[in-house]
Amino acid sequence: MRGNFQKNGIDFGTDWSGKIANLLNRLTTVRDTNKKDGIFWFLFISLFICFITLIVYMTGGTNAYVHLMYVPIILSVFIFDKRIAVLIVLFAGIMVGPFMPFNIKEGIMQTPNTWIFRCIMFLVVMLIIQVLLGHIRNFNDLEKKKAYEDLFTGYPNLNKWKSDFNCLPANLDCCQMVLFEVINIETIARNVDYYTSQETYKKILELCSGFFKECQVYAVNANRILVSVLEENAEEVYGTVKELISKSKQPIYINQIPVAVILKAGMVTMSGQEEPIEEVALKMEKALDQACHSQKEVVIYNKVISEEISKHYDMLVAIYHAFNNNEFHLVYQPQIDSKSGRMIGTEALLRWNRNPYQNLSIAEIIKIAEDAEFISTITKWVIKNVISQIKVWENQNKNIRVSVNLSARDLSDDAIMNYTMECIRLYDILPEHLEFELTERSIIEEEGRVFHMLREMQGHGIHISLDDYGTGHNSLLYLVKNLFSFDSIKIEKMFIDHIENPQNQLLIEGIVKAAHKNQMKVIAEGVETKEQYDVVKKIGCDIIQGYYFSKPVLSVELEKMIN
What we know:
8-stranded mixed β-barrel, disordered N terminus, alpha/beta, 17 strands, 563 residues, 3 domains, Alpha-Beta Plaits
């Protein structure tokens, strides 16, 4: 789960810097008083000055006690504006000025130079404190702005949402919290530049503000936006969210560059402050997570979603536990040459020994592992075991090519490629006995980088096969544009299942001719009957795989079949 609502508050505790900062903050906000309070403070400071004057007089005239006047002067700067503070300074200067003797006992009065200089010093101290206080207030305002505002976008941030949430009225009839995520913001930053991704995020914020005019929009982080909608029912908000997402599908132009945005949303319905903020945040996360991992654009949180996410988490824990306890093993399904009838290869398939989720297929297990970014660990385990098995067969003079399926996450960096080459060198096998199968989904998003990696694999002698051919909208483009020369393509089982349909036969025949023209072999997957076998062989498929010959078997059983 991707959590962005973690508590980041700072508890000063016994930290004196925190206490000082708090004191300064309180002093700098004293000025925000009403008229009645202002009169009270003015009278208090005036009486305070008179009291200090009395102390100076009773102690024999102008002496060290005159410095007590700085106390009401400093207070006036904090409480009043500049004009009133100047009046108070002049009043203090006069009170200990021309009418205050220098020495009462000897009857000596102050010289004009003395009391005038004192008045000037009072005024200078007042002005210096005024300037320093201005800097403190500016710093305090900036810190508040940083704490409650996203400085890049100018929108209130997550801290502000937390503050506003805690101030929601308890008698609120209904409230909707919507968490949006720009799914492909990192892809935009990677393929265009960081500036464009940030400007795209700002455009989506503006779009949200336009759709939710009477609501508060918050910039959560670089790709998430939170909208708080008060006093509107769930159906109205849901409809607005759907309209917004539909609008976001139109290209956004950043410096005349069209940018496509993928937007998802998770929504939570609540009434007033009926539950803690942490619970609401977690529900939004779960609803958004459900939307990101499904075909839905908007998901409203409910108990069913919570149960599904809990089950998903339980399955992930079970998969992780199974992997660490060696509960996975490999089976191999033979691939037969259609002309000679000889076994020329096999596909390695993952199996779970004691799968507690009987309805959970291997494809679903792989999807869960992909979502948890655990798939590369499993893939490395498969590659190592396959290569070690290839070595066993090479030692027995059995030249069999073994296919291994790679996922989209496996192609995200060069780690799998580097690991494969290490294993090939470690076990000293022939690279041409290893084949990687990839689906169109795994390479469609970043063709250039993926094809560069695949060419490097081919350069080392590893075979590359395109799996489930015919299911993607770009299938024919791979052949027509000749972006990459696969060693073979595997026709999707769906076509084989309905091969009695003449249109399917014509389609497969077209695929075979196009593949052969580009020096690629064609594998027919999922052949289960003699009728299917006869048709695919007649059409010209080079390699046949399916239950008609054998189900996936353990390596020991496969060796018996070879013999």
